[in-house]
Design brief:
386 residues; mainly beta; eight-stranded antiparallel β-sheet; 7% helix; globular
């Protein structure tokens, strides 16, 4: 019945749903066979359409179908709402929105924001969205729209020269948090309870001390992510070790654990996280400098980030974005400047299916996956040749 339910969703989700359906049958069959959820977040690989005998087991047949954005901005912020609606945010204060599945994009950038660097966008529907600009001091700002970008209100401007905001996440349409690099030795958390209309800095008493040189990477809007109504995670790097911090109370208190992705350099660490529930998560990263080796770029957790295990078959290079596929317990995508990977076993093995450059990725409940990156690149997951 679970397979049939997946196929019915696919029939109503358009071309991208066709591509995803081949992957989604894998966890569905695994569940029917009684394999269930494994403690490490991986499901046994089934036989059948997406099993080891299928090209989809290694991502063959999948590709990113380019969408003409009409922009040359670099988009590191991406919020996919559904198969018709998505928002991207990037350099030169650029925000674009589509409401027709990427056939056309409308420039809905906040007026006067051309000098800002937008690195994250969180959208709730085709009208309501919040964007984050990064940078030292007053360069870090938050804007909110309730009319599809026709008008924007600046709801936060950082006045602390020591703060540098990197990314944000929302638990629901009202409650969200944003992350700054350490100030006075601890990461700073900004919180909203009214959908981004107003923000306040949370007390730092529940935040562990940062390592010397430690920071978060504003590379994909995924250095701060959430799952459910209260759980959030922070990805770090740049210090002696890469770490992941976890909060179960919307950012008031945090625990911390080491991740098996190399750091020890300002350009190395964990760049992106994705959690499909409060326990099962993926981490990607490496060394973002072109030409530098990144031998360990992916890890997986099955206990909410308390422990992490490196992938058995790693992506071949630095990756900045990662997303679980909708309705799947074991399929996910990772993206970076040198390619994109698919996993069908919860992040234990990754297989390259595209060699284009993308910085961030996001998927929607109605079986649509989007990616965005440099030179205005925006793509939707599709079947090759379709």
């Amino acid at each position: 019945m679970r397979v049939m339910g997946t196929m019915r969703r696919m029939m109503t989700a358009g071309l991208c749903g066709v591509a995803l359906a081949a992957v989604l049958t894998a966890p569905a069959q695994a569940g029917e066979a009684g394999t269930g959820d494994r403690s490490d977040g991986a499901a046994a690989q089934p036989a059948g359409p997406a099993g080891s005998g299928s090209p989809y087991a290694t991502g063959a047949g999948l590709t990113w179908r380019a969408s003409d954005s009409g922009s040359d901005a670099r988009f590191r912020g991406l919020a996919a709402v559904d198969r018709r609606t998505a928002w991207v945010a990037g350099t030169k204060g650029t925000v674009l929105r589509t409401v027709n599945g990427g056939r056309s994009w409308r420039d809905v950038s906040p007026p006067g924001a051309g000098a800002l660097e937008f690195r994250d966008v969180e959208a709730f529907d085709s009208r309501h969205a919040v964007v984050l600009a990064i940078g030292e001091g007053e360069a870090s700002r938050v804007f909110r729209t309730a009319d599809g970008g026709a008008t924007w209100a600046e709801s936060f401007r950082n006045t602390d020269p020591a703060a540098f905001y990197d990314c944000m996440t929302f638990f629901d349409a009202r409650h969200g948090i944003a992350l700054s690099d350490p100030v006075d030795g601890k990461y700073r958390i900004l919180s909203t309870g009214d959908g981004g209309r107003s923000w306040r800095v949370l007390p730092s008493a529940g935040m562990p001390a940062a390592q010397p040189g430690e920071a978060a990477f504003a590379a994909s809007g995924q250095c701060l992510v959430s799952s459910g109504s209260r759980d959030a995670w922070i990805a770090t790097g740049g210090a002696a070790t890469a770490r992941v911090l976890h909060s179960a109370d919307r950012g008031l208190t945090w625990t911390v654990t080491q991740a098996p992705i190399p750091a020890g350099d300002p350009a190395r660490g964990v760049f992106g996280l994705a959690f499909r529930d409060a326990r099962h998560g993926l981490a990607v990263g490496g060394d973002y400098r072109a030409g530098e080796p990144s031998p360990r770029t992916a890890a997986v957790t099955g206990d909410g980030g308390a422990t992490w295990t490196g992938a058995r078959h790693q992506p071949p290079g630095y990756r900045s974005g990662v997303a679980w596929l909708p309705h799947s317990r074991s399929a996910a995508l990772a993206v970076g400047p040198t390619g994109s990977e698919l996993t069908l076993d919860g992040g234990r093995r990754w297989h390259t299916f595209d060699t284009g450059s993308y910085d961030t990725v996001d998927c929607t409940p109605d079986l649509s996956c989007w990616a965005a990156g440099e030179r205005g690149r925006i793509g939707r997951l599709a079947l090759s040749g379709r």
